[in-house]
Every structure is written in structure tokens, then in C-alpha cells.
Amino acid sequence: xxxxxxxxxxxxxxxxxxxxxxxSHRVPTFPKEAFQGGFFVKIRGRLxxxxxxxxxxxxxxxxxxxxxxxVWTGGCQDSNPSSLTSSSAAxxxxxxxxxxxASKPPTEEIxxxxxKTTGIRVETVFGGSGAVLSQMELAHEGDxxxxxxxxxxxxxxxxxxxxxxxxAIVTYLVPAICVQKGNPHDxxxxxxxxxxxxxxxxxxxxxxxxxxxxxxxxxxxLSPEEKAAFKANLLNYTxxxxxxxxxxxxxxxxxxxxxxxxxxxxxxTIEAIPLPADQIPRVGYIPIAVASYTKDRATAQRFIDxxxxxxxxxxFTRYGYFANPEQAYTYIGEKKPVGGEYQLPADWVTK
Length: 351
What we know:
Elements: E1 2-8, E2 14-20, H1 39-47, H2 52-72, E3 88-89, E4 92-100, H3 104-118, E5 121-127, H4 129-139, E6 144-146, H5 150-159, E7 168-173, E8 175-180, E9 200-203, H6 209-221, H7 224-233, E10 234-238, H8 241-249, E11 255-259, H9 262-265, E12 270-274, E13 284-290, H10 297-308, H11 310-318, H12 325-332
Parallel strand pairs: 4-5, 4-6, 9-10, 9-11
Antiparallel strand pairs: 1-2, 3-4, 6-13, 7-13, 8-11, 8-12
Helix pairs in contact: 3-11
């Protein structure tokens, strides 16, 4: 049986990762995070219910199409995952990075500037921090891990997916209520999200950093009755920070619990409503580290230094991120714990 996974890469190009197993018509077991937000969802959704032999044939055909594409393009994209990382690209070195979408807009700019400055391309898979971590673990490939919060970096360090001594803090984040520009539903407080008829979304707290922060805020500040009312207004879990911001930007929902920087991502469509200081449990930060699977640690470290240096920090500042904890404290109005981990309560886990 063949399993085909695909991811988006910068520059509009598609890279393919093929996982092939021959099992007597049994589906291999993968962590559930790997099925969220990627091609696996589409495969499972479209092919579920079909006879197993037919599923195998369809997936084999999909694999064949990829192989033919590689042949027709003169082998420009190798089906071997190792060719995606630290490989020669147009005469230069290439890095492969798994990143949480909490930093997507500035990270895309920084990667482009890094390539322009050094000639080194950084191919990036964006998504929920937990989801991309699972993808990296499955592939056993990658040079850098750039999650949206400390929670997932701690998981990566415990699993041995990153070289802990290379971890660096890049920037800081503060949670906020994000609403449509002009705040047409007059949402001012967390309790306003429990009003009948208000449409709300949060990111999936099992795989997305800002979703985990949202649950922590709800559990800290709402009564059991208010939490039930909030859940009644909750339309869905989104798959990444980017999709959380998009949900309110496109008016699919009235509000999300997101990061304050969302309004800088799309200032014409999103407005951030700051939470009172006593409702914010902690300041988030975005770390980066060299992946333990890298074949070019020195070049990966070079990108980390670039992100944390003046070129990268200027771009993050332009998007409204906080360069240090003190800036975050000023925004909040008081000092708060920084980073850490939060254990998701069982009643927020999807069945």
C-alpha cells in the first residue's frame, strides 16, 4: 500500500514526500496530528469506505503520477526525502524548515532576505506547531524546527527531535481577542464571547500553540456555565495560526482568541482587543532550534543567527511582535511569566 503526502513550499513550488509500505491491506498507524491539515486528510476523507484493494490501487496510481512527473521534469524533484534537505539548489545550499504558522508573514520575508543575502534557500512547511513536528518525526528529515510557542519546543526537546543546545528565542507574543475591523458586534471582553449568537473559533489546542493558549485563558477566567456557553458558540477548530486569523478576516466568525499580532498581519480586516492583565496567564515566545536530523548544522545555525540578528528582528518588529519580555509587559500592563507549558484538559480533546 502506498501513502502519498504533500506539503506547500515557498515560491509556489510543490515538494513531495512518499511513504511506501507493503502491508497486507492494512493501513499503517500514524500519530493523529499527522492527519490534520495536510494531504493525509484528503486521502482519508476521499477514499474512506472504498474497498481496501481499490484504495491500494488508487494510491499506487497517485504514486505513479508523482514518479512520471519527476521523469517528465528531468528529475528536478527527487522522490527521496533526503534530497529536500541541505541539498544543492541552483549551485547553492538549501535548508528545510518546519515552522508553526504563528510567525508565517515575517518568516517568509526573512527567508527570502536570507536567500537574497546568502544564496541559501530555506524551504518551509508551515502549519500547527504540533502537526509540523509530527511531520518532521515521520520524515526523519529537516534542518530547523521553528514552532509558535515554547510548549511545542519543550515537546521536541523531550523527544530528541532538536538539538537543545541550539535553541534560541526569536520573539515574543501576547494573546488577545481578535475581531472584524471596526468591531461590528461590540465584543469587548472574554465574556462577550459567551453571548448567544456570537460565532467564535479557536485553533486546535491539540496541535496549534495559540489554541492551547486560548483554552488556558478560558479555563482560567470563565465559570463552568460560561465555558459551556462559549463552547456552544464555538464553530470549529482551525488548523493553524494563519487559518485562525483568516477565519475572522474573511468574516467566517465574529471573533477568535489569537495573538495580538493578527491585526498587523491584516490591518484592514482584523482588530485586536487586549485582554485585561489578570486574564493573561503568560507571555508566549517563539523559539527556533536546529533539528536533530540535519545534515548541515553549521548552515542551519547560520539561519538562526540571521533570524535573531538585526535583519530578522527588524522584520518581526514591523509586524508588531515584541522583541523582548519588557515590551510584552508594557502591552499587557504588568509583568507575567514567560513561556512554559500547559497541559490540555481532557474535555477539550477531540474524539
